[in-house]
Design brief:
mainly alpha; 3% strand
């Protein structure tokens, strides 16, 4: 009699096929990562149910999926984070006036550099979290579809 449960051997077979063939990775490595993440999350939710007899809560599942989405956004789309502005003493600035360009001894200039640095961080953060939201929506839909209404509480 066939069962509808996904076991560890099934997961290993799927991973072996995906990684061994390499076709899925070459076609779209992001889609492959999403698929593997969905498989792993469903497997872990089922394993949790088998061990405890309780379903994973929908709220906990959505938090886990979003955190993993943010991590994937950083991994799949790394950003060039701006360097933190340096504070220099007046002696260093006067000695190296021609070579020191990212260094300021003036408090108002340094405050301006800090604000610009903060704006750059926020701008990059917006892009990362926007991509994470797209990943989250894609993965959560697939995980909830696999677990079904009885798979979450």
């Amino acid at each position: 009699m066939a069962t509808n449960k996904l076991g560890m051997s099934d997961i290993l077979k799927i991973v072996a096929v995906l990684v061994g063939a390499g076709v899925a990775w070459i076609a779209s490595h992001e889609t492959t990562v999403y698929g593997l993440l969905v498989i792993a999350l469903v497997w872990l939710a089922n394993l949790y149910f088998q061990k405890t007899g309780k379903h994973v809560g929908k709220q906990a599942l959505t938090i886990i999926v979003y955190v993993l989405s943010v991590v994937l956004a950083f991994v799949l789309h790394p950003a060039m984070w701006p360097a933190f502005p340096a504070w220099c003493s007046a002696a260093i600035v006067s000695l190296n006036a021609t070579t020191v360009t990212a260094c300021s001894a003036d408090p108002s200039s340094y405050a301006n550099a800090l604000v610009l640095w903060g704006g750059s961080i926020l701008s990059l953060g917006t892009a990362v979290f926007s991509f994470a939201t797209v990943v989250y929506n894609t993965i959560l839909e697939k995980v909830l579809a696999q677990l079904g209404p009885a798979g979450t509480s």
